[in-house]
Amino acid sequence: MSTISTTQVISDSALDKPRTGTWDGGNEPFNASYGKLMMWFFLLSDAFTFAAFLTTYGLIRHRYAAYDPAVNGAFHFSTKWWPVPDKVFNAFPGMGHADVPLGFVALMTMILIFSSVTMVLAVEAGHRMDKKDVQKWLLWTILFGATFLSSQAWEWSHFIHGTEKGTLMNDGTVFHGANLAMNQYGPVLFADLFFFITGFHGTHVFSGVCLLVWCFIATTNGTFEKRGHYEMVEKIGLYWHFVDLVWVFVFTFFYLV
Amino acid sequence: MAHHAPAQSTHVGEIPKPNVGWIWKTFFVLVGITALEFVFVFLMDPSTLRNSIFIVLTIFKAFFIVAEFMHLKHETKGLIWSVLIPMALLVWLLVALVTEGNAIHNAIY
Description:
A: mainly alpha; Four Helix Bundle (Hemerythrin (Met), subunit A); two-stranded parallel ribbon; two-stranded antiparallel ribbon; 65% helix; B: mainly alpha; 2 domains; Cyt_c_oxidase_su4_prok (chain B); Cytochrome C oxidase subunit IV (chain B)
């Protein structure tokens, strides 16, 4: 205590004045806590990983021939050209052989966007210290996240099992569906990229759901209420929105373009 | 931790009213852009123009998610730039490797 009063006495001298600039320490120059900043920089590095995947997709897609109706006739799967996405992803659960181009992936996109909304609502409720609302919106987010994962499981299963017709391969046999070495839709790398890109994204969604479940339990136990703030919900929210953001890009570059 | 405090001052134990209008506005913008993308998928034949439209719409969607949902618009300038500047390098990588892919294609076919 005595040291403080001593400092006050000599602080009139300009030399000994404490430095109070933005970067002189003792404050948060970015106005964000350590945890939030680290989440931002983790997400930046994760964005680089996903960008590497999508850039690889761009390179490989441009390396193969595109399907041209004028030259190749009516569309059919062939290892000679890159498949058209609306012809590959045109099945809908419970609709048998109906042709619903990109219908299911549209639904999955809506589910993920909606889960982002319920996540922001949870963060907003956290700012108001409203424990009940935080719980409610976290539960909705978990529900939509789990629904997205189940949809992706269905999508994978359908992609792996393929269509009844299959594709006549170069060795004269008919192949159905896809694995990492062979697929009925087009060049081998098409299925490989599908598995790696949507798989890596799905793993992120799964981790997000795990974090949300943990967060829900901590909220219910009153951990954040005792701490005096719900910043953890905000940090997990940043991660969750990032997963939605990645899906926006995967959706465009894998399914639309 | 002043920025965690609720916007309006309230009595202890009282929970302020939710302020969620902006959240639903952003949601409808995102849904609208996605719907627009589907319109282009079905009404336009694949072309460089269509792909460019998709990329522009995707960047719009990304902007709304990052700026509003992730709150980046309301952070300090230093944080905004330290996130955005490294992303510019990715655009360079993408352009470089797609060009490379075209070069390989031309060498093969």
